[in-house]
Specification:
The protein is of the alpha+beta class. It folds into 2 domains: about 90 residues, Winged helix-like DNA-binding domain superfamily/Winged helix DNA-binding domain (Arc Repressor Mutant, subunit A); about 45 residues, no CATH class. About 30% of the residues lie in helices and about 20% in strands. The protein is built from 5 helices and 6 strands; from the N terminus they run ααβααββββαβ. The protein starts with 12 loop residues before the first helix and ends in a 6-residue tail after the last strand. The structure holds zinc ion (ZN). Zinc ion binds next to loops.
Amino acid sequence: MTEARDTNAPVGTARVRRLKQALRSVGLRSTTARLAVLDYFHTRAGAHAHAEVVEALARRAFDRATVYRVLLVLSDAKLLRGTIHADRIRRFELAHPDETSAARDAELVCSSCGATSTLVGARLLLEDEAAAPRALLRREYALRVVIRCDACG
Ligand SMILES: [Zn+2]
């Protein structure tokens, strides 16, 4: 099999350039395996298990360990995120491009004394976006978290 017949290969220089730019933006070198795995997620919606990625990239001759290592590297770099669902299988998906900037300040309210304070850099993570009100998906919300403050213990 020649590289030219490899239907799993990222096609188009603009697409490859974007993938390389994404890797560079998080300080990662572009390797063939990283580009292939990142391209896999850019061309498919949703979350995918390690085994699915291995199977899809089988013709590229990346072994299971290489693919798994790449998944972890891309997750550490926040390009992907790993989630574990009810079946206990870890799946990976593209981290939303704006997710890392979605952190915002939350208002903390003590349920005992009513004292308020600000928590800098809180983030709302939706496990099921389909069930969420649209305003949340548009990032139109404020966070107010009810706690017992340290003084009230
Ligand atoms: Zn309090």
